[in-house]
Amino acid sequence: MKHKILKIHPKDNVLVALTDLKKGDQVHFEGKPITLSHDVKAKHKFAEESLSIDDNIFMYGIICGKAMHPIMKGEVLTTQNVAHKTEEFTGKRQSKAWIAPDISKWNKLNFMGYQRGDGQVGTANYWLVIPLVFCENRNIEIMKDAFVEELGFAKPNKYKAFVKQMRELYAQGDKEKISQLNVETVERDQDNKLFKNIDGIKFLTHQGGCGGIRQDSDMLCALIAGYINNPNVAGATILSLGCQNAQPSILKDKLNKINPELKKPVLLFEQQKEGTESTLLTNAIQQTFLALTEADQISRTPAPLSKLTIGLECGGSDGFSGISANPSVGHASDLIVALGGKTILSEFPELCGVEQELINRCTTDESAEKFVHLMRAYAASAEAVGSGFDMNPSPGNIKDGLITDAMKSAGAAKKGGTSPIVDVLDYAEYVVKPGLNLLCTPGNDVESTTAMAGSGANIILFTTGLGTPTGNPVTPVLKVSSNHNLAEKMSDIIDINTGEVISGDKTIEEMGEEILEQIIEVASGNKKAKAMELNQDDFIPWKRGVSL
User: Which of 33, 191, 291, 408 is an S-S bond match for 402, by CB 3.0 to 4.6 Å?
Assistant: First the structure.
């Protein structure tokens, strides 16, 4: 550890502890001694100078809170002495010129992807099976049971093999050996995948499609249309009951809006038309199998890096996320944008307090106005049910140093780098413009990643300081750790470790370049995201309305 403390921005009036500090310790910043009045855990903040009641707390150069009580120089910031506060935003943009990073190292590089008929390129090749309404969830599960193991798509289940071996030992009367077994050394079945160019069949279920307001069913159809259009999807099988709000005609309209020239096969089966369950499933399974034989004919070919669409996500954030992982991902985003690719920054409740900065980065007044409208409407809907963006930080966030939503948001926004914002999208709108796009989603990790895949992300970068297994069915999710301890403790879910930024061994720019290199490896199929290896297929559509 090269440094014990950090000041993120010259305008800040608080310092961040990079390691655990003890009460009575004297630290020096810019030649000035500061005696700590309390223990300060790593990731937490303490006052650089004494603060009076209602004084603003500055972090990342913006207001991230206010003092609720006098805070002495060297005193730790807590939820007892600091409250949420943000800067006002005008909605009027003041654009600045962007200095793009040097991309000469990657300008002529390609990744090996799946070329689609509309010009998009997938980083994977999946077949999608999904219902239009929750009534069909059971039939989706029956199809999953029929397909996955028989076609060799089932991941070897070490725990299943583990239990099988324990059963055999018990039958042999050898209970003593059971406690000596190691799950990691148990032999498992080998890969027997039939379709070598298909990465898997993804069977998704949900609780929507009927019973709520019609807007929710419309949004569900738009989301499903986005998943079908996602370049990582070769085609889809859709199950419909027939009488639900989410009608096939709505799905077709949404698909036509996203991509009028869609060339992918979309197989739709309606139970109330097919008749018996057996007839429905027989036809769906048979036609899906034949479609898989065609999807298997496509193979990876070289594609420019401009064909990448990268989702930018954070979850289980800590006090280091906005210092190491998020800005490193932000630099990777800037590199992708400079190369002509697309990136997506979502989670609108976690952009609270940085609105003006994002407004200033919008390339058009129309985009800036749309962002302001979406933010204010979202905030008002939260307040209407007795909540608000200020309640966004989770207990884990607070415990690890993110004590206000503005503090969390200022760090979270760093995932978007510094590039101009070319478009602002509402939930389930599809990304079409190269550059950084804002997408209105909740701060909920799974609802947000679900939305980004539905808007076309073919890779998602997911930063975390506390650890989370979140993944996505069709889009590889690369987990980026903010610190060494997490990367070591939860190595089974972490793909990239930016802890070296905290230790001072690497710069944000160096880590951003490493992240881009990892993206290319995963996009080319040379390496699998750990969430994919774990079959972490999280899918939660956002329900904005009420149930009726």
Answer: 408
